[in-house]
Structure formats: structure tokens, C-alpha cells
Amino acid sequence: MPGSPFYRRRDPAARGGRSWSLAGMDYGLSGPRSQLVVKVVVAATLTALCMFILRQSSPPFPDNVFSTRQEGVHHVLVTGGAGYIGSHAAMLLLEKDNYRVTIVDNLSRGNLGAIQVLQTLFPEPGRLQFINADLGDAKAVDEIFAKYPFDSVMHFAAVAYVGESMAEPLRYYHNITSNTLLLLEAMARHHVTKLIYSSTCATYGEPKKMPITEDTEQVPINPYGKAKKMAEEIIKDYARNKQMSVMILRYFNVIGSDPQLRLGEAPRPELRVHGRISGACFDAARGFRNGLEIRGDDYQTQDGTCVRDYIHVSDLVEAHVIALNRAEMGKVGIYNVGTGKGLSVKEFVEACKAATKVNISVTILDRRPGDYAEVYSAPKKINDELGWKAKHVNLTETLEVAWKWQKKHPNGYANEPMISV
Ligand SMILES: NC(=O)c1ccc[n+]([C@@H]2O[C@H](COP(=O)([O-])OP(=O)(O)OC[C@H]3O[C@@H](n4cnc5c(N)ncnc54)[C@H](O)[C@@H]3O)[C@@H](O)[C@H]2O)c1
User: Fold this and answer.
1) Domain for residue 59, yes or no?
2) How far is the CA of 153 from the centre of ligand 1 (A)?
3) Which residue range or ranges hold the NAD(P)-binding domain (predicted)?
């Protein structure tokens, strides 16, 4: 390329006169044998020069850095990393220097905008790549594993609404159970042995005794919980005969936003109908909906509304990174991730009113099928064994931060600057 520092012009006259001009030095030739020697010397010199120039000019990482193992760098496949929890987890991994992250997501529910925020925060080569693929596509998943040498997998990708699972059970068994099976098969084929699995308190159903420990019997009462429990069983059965290090984390109700307001919770508008409570409260506070509908106030609880254990997303993803570091070969660790405290829906609404300073109106409706009265965790095992404890336990403060993110992003991630991913 003319003008390039690597461009060397050849002198045609010199070539015709059997001499090569290399960096201003002329080599006179006489006889076929010496011609050959000179050609070999020139070729070797040129090769050495090219290698030197390439070494000087190439970026610190080769283009295919994601396909290369690098000492001291742990490559994590984050499935569902465009979603609410997966994006926060990817961010926490990327904040630590020794992780490389590949996000695989089909964007069916997540946000490209969240990926774009992460790409902007971590633009350095070799930190983050995004692959738009469906985990139900076994061939695509296998190709991804064949190309990239992952050290571990954090499997977040899933459809995750209790009410929707009652209406569309097959979708849930397919997306959660069957896709986890495909993922495990790909991990087996490509010798990836570390898995952190996103499970849920919905696998316990409605136990008689609170709080829920990891030994509480799992009797899920909706397809979402059943599909997750089946996926857990598949993972446990597989890990029994194989050398795997697995952590199954059973989350309670996840709320909140990154305290620095870089990421938040932004379900697609069409999913709002299935509603998680914080999104519904914020929508009511913004006037996107006419107040709040509480589904059932005749449960056997303190004030008649459902009781849940609300865990902050930043605490939750911290538990993932700890689990990743503490996962042991040949073991399946199972941990509840919650605060250990139950709060009623009415208490949540009061906290939301305080955080948003909007007097949200409330209508009481019939119970929603598939809901359980009271669910809260005993987080003692994760506290004791992994040294993890929820830090963000003031609900109003958590909602104040999430509300700030919501006000900054009235259209979710829709207005994030478009960059190529
Ligand atoms: N949010 C909660 O309160 C909660 C509680 C317990 C467990 N969980 C679990 O945590 C995980 C993440 O939940 P979330 O709240 O971030 O949900 P989310 O909908 O925000 O994120 C899920 C992501 O998975 C992707 N996805 C879904 N199906 C896919 C497929 N077939 N191929 C590729 N990508 C696919 C979606 O596009 C989305 O980006 C889920 O496994 C969920 O069951 C969530």
C-alpha cells in the first residue's frame, strides 16, 4: 500500500539487471549457483523482516483472541447475557481483569442495548464478544463450543415468568429443560467442565415450613419451577459420572439495578403483562399503567398478600462470581441466594411509593394461578460455606436506585447509541 510504512517499492530496472534492491543495498549477481544463494538469502531476510514488522504492528491480542487460550485469563460463556441478570453478571466479570466473556443470547427477551453498554464500558480487544444464537439450535451451539475454548459456563438464558409458564408449559420445558440438556451435551463434547446454573426458589413450590433451606423438598407447582427442577436433575445426574464442577444457585425474587446506574431491568413492553413486581410498580409510578393490581389478599400471610424474599441483582451476581471461584471438581454445590427475610406485596408497594414519591393506587384482584403464599430463604449455607451475604437489604433504598435508572431510561435500552456488536 503506497504511503504505508510497510510498503517497499521494487526498482524494475534493477530487477531487469538481476539485482535486488533491499533497503538501499544492492547485490550484484554472477553465475546460477550464486544467484540461488542470493535468492535464498533475500527470501530469508524478507521473511525475517516481515515477521519483525508484523510483530511491531499487530495489536496486543490477535484477531482471533476469543478462540485462543491465554494464560491467566478465564473465558466464561454467559448464556442470556443480554438479559437482566446475565448482563449484570457479565459486567461484574468484566470489572475483574482476569475474565474474558462471550455472551450468547438470541435476543428473544434481552436487550441489545445492554450489550452495547457493556461493549462501551469494556472496549478492549479480547474482553467481551456477543454472539446472537439460539441455545435450542444444537448445531449453532456446537459450532460456538468448537470455536471458543471456554473455561466455564454461566447458564442464565431462559424464559422466566411463572404466569406465562402456566399458559405455555411446552415453551418452558423446551426452553429451560431441553436447552439445558443441549448445552450440557455441547459442554461434554468440548470438555468444558465448570457450570454455574441459574435455578429458582420456584423449584420448592409451596413448602409448609419456612424459611426454605437447600434440604427443603422440591415440589414445584408450576411449569416454570418444574422445568428448572428437571434441568437441575439432568445436571446432577450428568455430574454424578463425569468430572464436573457445578454450582446450582436457587435465586429468590431478584430486584434492583447496578448502583452506578450503568445497567437496569428493562423487560420488553410485551412482557410487562406477565409482570415482575418492581417493573409493575415503576410503570404505575410513571403513569404507564393505571395503578397496581395486587393478585390476591386472602393468602395465609400477615397482611393477606404474598410474601417474597427480594434479592438485589448486584448481590446475586456477586454470589455467581464467588461460586465460580469456589466450584470444586467432582462436586455439585447447591445454594439458596436470598436475604432470609420475607416481605409482603403490600410492604413492597409501600416501599415503592416511598422510593418514587408517587402515591400509586392499588386494586385487589383474585389470586393468580400458580402463585404461592409465602416464600423466603434460609441463606445460612451460602453465608457459611461461600462467605456470601446479601448487602443491599434496605428495600426502599434499592428501589430508589432502580427508580433513578428507570427515569434515566424511560424507554428501557431503546435509546442506547448503536455500535456494532
Ligand atoms: N428474575 C428473577 O427474579 C429470577 C428469579 C429466579 C431465577 N431466575 C433465573 O435467572 C435467569 C435470568 O433471568 P432474567 O430475569 O435475567 O431473565 P431475562 O428474560 O431478563 O434474561 C433471559 C435472557 O435469556 C435469553 N434467552 C432466552 N431463551 C434463549 C434461547 N433459547 N437462546 C438464547 N438466549 C435465550 C433472553 O433473550 C434474555 O436475554 C433465568 O434462568 C431465570 O429463570 C430469575
Assistant:
1) no
2) 14
3) 77-394
Same structural domain for residues 36 and 158? no
Coil, strand or helix: which one is 161? coil
**Atom nearest to 155 CA in ligand 1:** 41
Tell me which residues of the chain have a pLDDT lower than 70. 1-63, 415-421
Structure confidence at residue 285 (pLDDT): 93
What does residue 330 show for φ and ψ, rounded to 5 degrees?
Answer: 85, 5
Q: What tens digit of pLDDT does each residue of 99-121 get? A: 999 999 999 999 999 999 999 99
The per-residue pLDDT for 47 is 52
Residue 220 included in any domain: yes
* Ligand 1 atom nearest to CA at 253: 3
How many domains, the chain?
2
Our answer on whether the CB atom of 180 is closer than 6 Å to any ligand 1 atom is: no
**Do 5 and 81 fall into the same domain?**
no
Residues 354 and 397 in one domain: yes
Domain residues for 30? 1-49
pLDDT in the model for residue 276: 83
CA of 12 to the centre of ligand 1 (A): 64
For residue 259, give the CATH number of its domain: 3.40.50.720
Which of 84, 99, 197, 224 does the annotation list as catalytic? 224
Instruction: Collect all residues with Cβ–Cβ distance below 8 Å to 65 and sequence separation of at least 6.
Output: 100, 125, 126
Residues 313-339 pLDDT 10s: 999 999 999 999 999 999 999 999 999
Rounded to an integer, what distance in angstroms lies between the CA atom of residue 158 and that of residue 58? 39
User: For the chain, what's the residue count?
Assistant: 421
Q: Is 238 a catalytic residue?
A: no
Whether 278 and 367 share a structural domain: yes
* 134 CB near ligand 1 (under 6 Å): yes
58 within some domain = no
262 located within any domain: yes
Is residue 87 lining ligand 1, measured as CB closer than 6 Å?
no
- Grid cell at residue 194: 465448570
Task: Say if ligand 1 is within 6 A of residue 278 CB.
Answer: no
Residue 156 CB less than 6 A away from ligand 1: yes
What is the chain's mean pLDDT, rounded? Answer: 87
| Ligand 1 atom showing the smallest separation from residue 265 Cα | 20
The 10s digit of each residue's pLDDT in 64-102 is: 899 999 999 999 999 999 999 999 999 999 999 899 999
